[in-house]
Amino acid sequence: RNPGNAAIRDLVLEYNENNRSIAVTTQALHEMYVKKHIAPDIGGIGHVKLKNALPVVFEKFYYDKMQVDKLSPNTVIKLHSFLHAAFKYAVRNNMLLTNPLDAVKCPKEVKYTPRIPTDQEFLKLLESSRGTIDEVAIVLAGVLSLCRGEIFGLKWSDIDWDNQRITIEETFVHWDKNIRKDPKADARNRTMYVPQFVLDILKKYRSSLKVVGVYVCEKYLPDAYGKHFKKLADKHGLKGVTLHKLRHYNAVIMMKLNIPDKVAAGRTGHSQLSTLQEVYQHATLDADKMASDKISNFFATK
User: How many other CB atoms are found less than 10 A from the CB of residue 133?
Assistant: First the structure.
């Protein structure tokens, strides 16, 4: 059997199934790429045989994705990265002699300036959402810097009410299926102090529920809530502000309050200082408590 007669669809599915080095969420994202963009008979290239997969095939595919499907250049670059890796796998396994995507001209990456809300905009959004799941999501993202997956993976049991702390043990994402997994390796099971006013919001929301489930935010799937939040932000004149942008807002607040970078990185879950965090665990927790107090005092004066 000539491997060149295999279709692109078969190659990318085989590559994704055999690639054990990627996170389960990345694997699910790749499955979505195949299902939504690569495999369809109309607008896809899944039917093209490997021997006919010339650079021009991919360049036209990318052009159509941007012009017809309105994908951003950055999304097309990610799609290209997946396809390039799959064809590299094909070369390594003697299905092809060369990787045609080495010669493909990709769109240029677009540098976006994040739309970060001002203090007034954030507080307006918070005030308009009192007593709802939106208020909970807003403070978890904008005050604690949790990402969407962490917000929807947060369990009530992760909250230490007495010691004013939460522990991030799980993230929840949804592509074509629900996926619950550990946080990023550098943020695994991170614990942070929580301002008292955030705990009060969580307690009030919990008491309003007729049935208290396992997870704090069980009303929405993560991607569905992302769309809901966009509508909420647009309604209040905050076009371009997403739930993720509230994490950026929190980072700006910590910078304004002169919270040390190491502590701020630890709270956002982006710290690369894992070894030092073990050595300076107690000092970091003390500084983290100071960060929590400063954030609490900042919002209390608004």
Answer: 18
